[in-house]
Specification:
heterodimer, A: mainly alpha, ABC transporter involved in vitamin B12 uptake, BtuC, B: mainly alpha, two-stranded antiparallel ribbon, 11 helices, 2 strands, 72% helix, globular
Chain lengths: 343, 290
């Protein structure tokens, strides 16, 4: 299938810098005018897609670029959401404090980064399959805490009635109360995250991460402290996931334990597999496909888990490189297969 | 003191159940390098098939045979149709992801067929009742489960260490390609091990059902505990599965009895300490699972 698209020249066409830039500008313009042409329902879907795109891109930094297969990434989505939900539930504090993004965002970022550091400290001692199991186990621990520690987390009901986000500085204050205003807020964070992550993966730091993915032993021999690099990647990925979790809870106005559950960790991996790992754009496409998937199978939504599982199996078996692989876009590597010296 | 002994026995019961699960998971990993995330789903499926058999024929012993047979057969089919396509040195992640998809599908189909109720199975009449332990009593069924787990551990150990087939399996753990080069049909061994592993999960589901009621979501709870066991014990080794199960089973039981607020923390604290001291697990054969 790849050869077919290559014959059509699609991948070379997509590979050109001008074409890439043009496509990106077009997409951004479309995203900006979208609220004026879309119904409220489709606007909500777009908000969901952007939030999950941030979440999926953050995992791509780990899975796609560093080669760390985390199966517990929902831990940070849920954590970011619960931190926001808890701040919002503190009715003893003034509302313009607990809903102010300028206060909640730093708290969410510091909180998720701290927990990511602690989990990473233990999990990054392992690699491969062990890393996968340990991250899954830690995420499950957070899920169990969220269920049991009901005084803080609201137990299995979660924390409902989360306040709408407000941005307030001095006497200036703006509430993102309408759907379109919240859409622009999410779009802003999405573009910011995409831009930052792109900067990160294309920096020397990002290339070091790719080196660790390709051959960690060699990077160690070159004198890199790979543990620190992996830790930095783990904390950055956790923080962006926390940001997406915050937005998700602000959108649904409800911090739910389901956001911490392993099906959520699995779902974001599905997004990566469907879209293609190590590309950043792939996870965005994957998030789009998976979140819009129920639209096409509306009559079967009760069997959503079943369909998600089947989709997963089909992609793993038949298209392990995802949509981006289908389009002929390869994840960026240090050396392409052709250039690699023989032997 | 009496309470302590009861908790000790309960800890042993939990450990043996975990051991049956962890042995299957560890066998599959040791042989095929696959972490089967559908292992919990096979446990639940085994339990529910057992429930249906008990309801229909009123015979627990029959369930003990039928459920592992059906689930083991399903394991062979899955290995043959799907997993076999994913063998290869760089496709470990794909294999794990495949079993995750399988877990989702299985858990949904189970809920479709058996509903979302909490179902419990009565222990067989032969093993019903209690025996006195000092001034308290302890269910005979639980006590016999401890014996069953120990016997199974012994049988698996004898199989792996003392039979020709076991030697092939152990050789496959070290170097599957070399075993294949010696003229042994390694694909058949893989299929057999996957069947044995899934059948063990189903067996655990049946023997566990009188103690732990079945409900959707149990598959994942069991899976996580089993994963912690193999992380602590070390993947691919029977001793690791056994002692890991004892450690986690005891930590879980005593934690719930004496520190209910921190019981979950205790298990993960044990895991964290083991990871700090021995990242490959207490009896890990493969360094860091690479």
């Amino acid at each position: 299938m790849t050869s077919l698209t290559e014959q059509m020249g699609l991948s070379t066409w997509l590979g050109q810098k001008r074409v890439k830039l043009g496509l990106i500008i077009m997409a951004v313009i479309l995203a900006l005018i979208y609220p004026y042409v879309s119904s409220l329902y489709f606007l909500s879907l777009a908000i969901e897609v952007f939030i999950f795109a941030i979440f999926a891109m953050s995992l791509d930094l780990l899975l796609g670029y560093t080669g760390l297969a985390s199966f517990g990434h929902a831990a940070f989505l849920g954590l970011g959401g619960y931190i926001l939900g808890y701040i919002s539930s503190r009715s003893d504090l003034a509302l313009n404090l607990t809903s102010n993004i300028l206060i909640t965002l730093p708290l969410v970022i510091i909180g998720t980064a701290l927990i990511a550091f602690i989990i990473g400290f233990f999990a990054l001692r392992t690699s491969g399959i062990y890393f996968l199991m340990v991250t899954l186990a830690f995420a499950q621990m957070l899920f169990s805490i969220a269920i049991r520690w009901s005084g803080i987390t609201g137990g299995s009901d979660g924390l409902a009635g989360v306040a709408r986000p407000v941005i307030g500085l001095g006497s200036f204050s703006y509430e993102f109360s309408s759907r379109p205003s919240f859409y622009y807020l999410v779009l802003f964070f999405f573009l910011l995250s995409w831009w930052l992550l792109r900067r990160i993966v294309n920096s020397p730091f990002g290339w070091t991460l790719r080196g660790i993915r390709e051959n960690e032993q060699r990077m160690k021999a070159l004198g890199y402290n790979t543990f620190r690099f992996k830790m930095a990647a783990f904390v950055i990925a956790g923080t962006f996931a926390g940001l997406s979790g915050m937005l998700l809870v602000q959108f649904f106005r409800h911090a739910a334990p389901g956001n911490l559950y392993w099906t959520m960790s699995g779902q974001v991996i599905v997004m990566l597999i469907v879209g293609g790992t190590g590309t950043l754009i792939g996870p965005i496409l994957g998030a789009m496909v998976i979140r819009l998937f129920p639209l096409f199978v509306s009559s079967y939504t009760e069997r959503w888990e079943l369909l998600l599982g089947l989709l997963f199996i089909l992609f793993v078996l038949f298209a392990p490189k995802g949509i981006m692989g289908f389009l002929g876009v390869k994840p960026s590597t240090l050396l392409t297969q052709e250039k690699r010296p023989s032997g | 003191m009496e309470n302590f002994i009861i908790q000790l026995l309960n800890g042993l019961v939990a450990s043996m159940l975990l051991f049956i699960m962890a042995a299957g998971l560890s066998l599959i990993f040791g042989q095929m390098n696959v972490i089967n995330l559908a292992h919990g789903a096979f446990y639940l499926l085994g339990g529910y098939i057992g429930l249906s058999v008990v309801r229909r024929f009123d015979n627990f012993w029959l369930a003990l045979i039928i459920a592992p047979l059906i689930v083991g057969g399903l394991g062979v089919i899955i290995e043959y149709l799907f997993l076999r396509r994913l063998y290869g040195t760089h496709r470990h992640l794909d294999q794990v992801l495949f079993t995750f998809g399988l877990a989702l599908v299985a858990s949904d189909l189970i809920q479709w067929n058996w509903g979302a109720y909490v179902e419990s199975v009565a222990p067989p009449t032969l093993l019903a009742g209690h025996i006195p332990v000092f001034s308290l009593t302890f269910p005979i069924y639980r006590l016999s489960l401890i014996g069953f787990g120990l016997l199974l551990a012994l049988a698996l150990w004898l199989f792996l260490e003392r039979t020709r087939l076991g030697a092939i399996v152990r050789a496959g753990v070290s170097d599957a390609q070399m075993v294949s080069g010696l003229g042994i049909n390694i694909h058949l061994v893989f299929a057999g091990i996957f069947a044995l592993g899934t059948a063990l999960a189903a067996l655990a589901g049946v023997v566990g059902s009188p103690i732990r009621p079945l409900y959707p979501g149990l598959d994942f709870e069991i899976l996580i505990l089993t994963l912690v066991v193999v992380v602590v014990g070390g993947l691919g080794s029977l001793q690791g599965a056994f002692f890991g199960s004892l450690l986690i089973g005891m930590a879980d039981t005593f934690g719930k009895a004496y520190l209910p607020e921190f019981s979950l923390f205790l298990i993960f604290a044990v895991m964290a300490v083991v990871l700090l001291i021995r990242p490959a697990g207490l009896f890990g054969l493969k360094e860091n699972g690479q």
